[in-house]
Specification:
The protein is an alpha+beta fold and 404 residues long. The protein is built from nine helices and 16 strands. The protein has helices at 81-100, 128-143, 150-160, 216-226, 230-250, 254-273, 284-300, 324-335, 364-373; strands at residues 10-17, 19-23, 28-30, 35-36, 40-44, 51-58, 67-70, 73-75, 112-118, 172-176, 187-192, 200-206, 305-308, 315-320, 376-381, 387-389. A hairpin with a 4-residue loop joins strand 3 and strand 4. Helix 5 packs antiparallel against helix 6 (254-273). It is globular and about 70 Å long.
Length: 404
């Protein structure tokens, strides 16, 4: 890799989380600035389960062009307008600091070497771009010692990936659509911290780790251009849901939170189906998960779990820790403990629970589809925002390292 040199290598490393929206972001009013047509809200998931690790480094010893390596593979950073936009904004902030204090090293003039690793499949419907751009922005901001707050940095991360702005914070995060043409009021805000409602859990049913058929950006463009349902959802339905779900979070009202989450997921996918040609992100396994969630709630006599699906087939099922037996226990009794993922960091809370609801009370066809249609599960919960760490992916002399 990089040759040994006396030029100093500056480094900063951060982890960043995945977030899963409960009010979906879908559609852009400005594609260049990544300005959304509607506000959205997400739950930040624990980095003990899902995270991106990114080291940002710079040195006079590096080649003149910035470099990005993702999961061991070199990326063509110069062809990524989104990445270049993020780096240009971060450099401009660093240059302001250097102009104000001549004693600071001129890091803004040095080429960057950025190395990033995910511990989950990229482009598989698990919000990899959100965690990736959040980690990139946070790591470079730390490298440059920028004073900007996470909310201020969220404007920059948004340029890389819209949902990345929500991964700059923990807990429950709203992305305000904003109204200004320059996007300065389109930013993320923490609605409630991880500690406000720490009992929130998520069971992710990974249907496929393959790349999705229709990338999110392409799907958004098609929906905005052709769906007759889209404008009603963006302009009338979502604003009311944002208010209602923020109230539910503040009140720790899970039944309301779950119902809004499920209805918004269904509404989002309805606009995809209403697109022309129609877009299918969910499949038979996804629909079986929907049926099981409703059957579990009916059997429990109350709303104990709620599903949501991003632009992909994977189900994210929210529930509270106190209902681990009725929710996670039921899915474990259906899927068996041999399926990959049960042994993760959140398994201790469910390994000794009972089998959940009787399988006589759930749809047998849905059970059969789920038994054969999943590649793994991920047990996780609400988590914190980006964390600075010392596990660098770039060595002291600029060489690329790996934790994998």
């Amino acid at each position: 890799m990089a040759a040994v040199s006396e030029s100093p290598v500056y480094r900063a490393t951060t982890t960043a989380p995945v977030n899963i929206a409960v009010i979906k972001y879908w559609g852009k009013r400005d594609a260049t600035l990544n300005l959304p047509t509607n506000s959205s809200l997400s739950v930040t998931l624990s980095q003990r389960s899902l995270r991106t690790l990114t080291t940002a480094s710079c040195s006079a010893n590096y080649p003149a062009a910035d470099e990005l390596t993702l999961n061991g593979k070199s990326q063509d950073i110069q062809s990524s307008k989104r990445t270049l936009a993020c780096l240009a904004s971060l450099r401009a902030h660093r240059q302001e600091l250097e102009n104000a204090d001549s004693s600071l090293p001129k890091l803004s003039t040095l080429p960057l070497r950025i190395v990033s690793e995910n511990n989950f499949p990229t482009a598989a419907g698990l919000a990899s771009s959100a965690a990736g751009f959040a980690a990139l922005v946070r790591a470079v901001a730390d490298l440059y010692k920028l004073p900007q707050s996470p909310t201020e940095l969220s404007r920059i991360a948004r340029q890389g990936s819209g949902s990345a702005c929500r991964s700059l914070m923990g807990g429950y995060v709203a992305w305000r659509a904003g109204e200004l043409a320059d996007g300065s009021d389109s930013l993320a805000e923490e609605v409630a911290s991880q500690g406000h409602w720490p009992e929130m859990r998520a069971l992710i049913l990974v249907v496929s780790a393959e790349k999705k058929d229709v990338p999110s950006t392409t799907g958004m463009q098609t929906t905005v251009a052709t769906s007759e349902l889209f404008a009603t959802r963006a302009n009338a339905v979502v604003p009311a849901r944002m208010t209602a779900i923020e109230t539910a979070i503040q009140n720790r009202d899970f039944p309301t939170f779950a119902e809004i989450t499920m209805r918004d997921s269904n509404g989002f996918h309805a606009t995809c189906l209403d697109s022309w040609p129609p877009i299918f992100y969910m499949n038979d396994v996804s629909r079986a998960a929907v049926r099981l969630v409703h059957d579990i709630n009916n059997a429990a006599g109350r709303t104990v779990c709620g599903y949501t699906f991003d632009a992909g087939p994977n189900a994210v099922i929210y529930y509270l820790e106190k209902d681990s037996e009725v929710v996670a226990g039921t899915f474990r009794s259906i899927l068996g403990t041999e399926l990959e993922g049960w042994s993760g960091p959140f398994y201790d809370a469910v390994k000794n629970v009972g089998p959940g609801v009787s399988l006589d009370q759930v749809d047998s066809r849905a059970v059969d589809v789920l038994k054969t249609g999943l590649s793994r599960v991920i047990l996780t919960g609400v988590g914190e925002g980006p964390v600075s760490v010392e596990d660098h992916l770039v060595g002291e002399k600029g060489e690329i390292l790996s934790t994998q």
